Amino acid sequence: MSSIEEKIEQIYQQVVRRNPGESEFHQAVNEVIGTLAPVLRKYPQYAEHKIIERICEPERQIIFRVPWQDDRGEVQINRGFRVQFNSALGPYKGGLRFHPSVYLGIVKFLGFEQIFKNALTGLPIGGAKGGADFDPKGKSDDEVMRFCQSFMTELHRHLGEYTDVPAGDIGVGAREIGYLFGQYKRMTNRYESGVLTGKSPHWGGALVRREATGYGAAYFVDEMLKVRGESLEGKVCVVSGSGNVAIYTVEKIEQLGGKVVACSDSDGVIYHERGIDVATLKQLKEVERRRISAYADVHRDARYIPGGCIWDIPCQVAMPSATQNELDASAARRLVANGCVAVGEGANMPTTPEGARIFLEAGVAFGPGKAANAGGVATSALEMQQNASRDAWTFEYTEQRLHAIMTEIHRACYETAAEFGSPGNYLIGANIVGFTRVAEAMVAFGVV
Ligand code: NDP
Q: Which of 129, 235, 285, 370 is labelled catalytic?
């Protein structure tokens, strides 16, 4: 190991020591800084200014009590988080996740990833993430509303269109954003549209924001295939999950001529050989809020596999779009053996490090989440632009902008990977592009 690699390993060990028990955060840090040795060799000033050490330490972490009453009048207590990780390139920006598994380590891994993802978009946004260990599943609308109001009663003092701009993530969609915005407006007495993104287009939301992460991920995969002389046209695909990202990934793949044969939730898998019907998916998940098993009641020729593993289904393109570490080494081996040629991460860190290594060694085109799913936050930044100028763009124009941003992210990752000696390795390309953009700003700002 050269002294630069040793130094990076020491920084990583220090992160592990200073943040005990936060395994997802350790994993995300290791995955990024483990690829930065060539950057420090080329730009020694980043080491002098201790940019890696600084970037691994959040600027601010907020943890707070969220008390609320359920429909029976019983008091419930959850824990809320906001980690404002890095504001070198703009106001903190990143979603809120409501899921029982949320704890500080998950929020920090997501916030850390968000720094580089946001930098990759080329738009002026810093990195943050937040959420709560609240489970919206099985809760009434009134319970979700009371929870969101209590959550925002504390969080509002830390937000602002020039300070910190949250959005949705797992368990936080248009309904939750509505309740959160309503309470923010009430607490501050300001109609500050730009303080939250993912709003309904009826009151300040951008068209295409709902579709953006999934559409963007499909565009990114299409770009990866194009440099290999292929495209999504005619490809058999599987998309894990059946939430916001999964639904619009399915929709765009089908628009681009691919066929998605499977999707899932945490209970099981739907296999539909003639292709997932996206209208049914939207009706069941967005309108009726039902489990994915209900799909097989609507389409009798589809098969529901309770407890099944979606990665067992043969496909040419795999799009993990549910949650972190959902695709491990053994799943990666099965996908490769079944002829998978491209993987696009719609979710954040869905592939384990070992899984990613297997894809890279097998020559599979592997699009890491911070690049492939950046379309969501990029369109959030477009929503902020529209709010700032009190404007509303058309669906077609906004989608054109999204498409251009995804093509540019792909180009930057692809060319940078080659420049730093790892052609075709989008993981390395994405980390280096994101890191250097943030590092340049941090050096310019001095020791702050
Ligand atoms: P949703 O809440 O809309 O959907 C999540 C989906 O993933 C559901 O089908 C859910 O199934 C499944 N899922 C969640 N947790 C688990 C788990 N622990 N095990 C198995 N399945 C699980 O969330 P999104 O679609 O918004 O987010 C999905 C992923 O995409 C996340 O990693 C998120 O961070 C990432 N992402 C989202 C963006 C966005 O714009 N929304 C932007 C960029 C990334 P079930 O109902 O059974 O829990």
A: 129
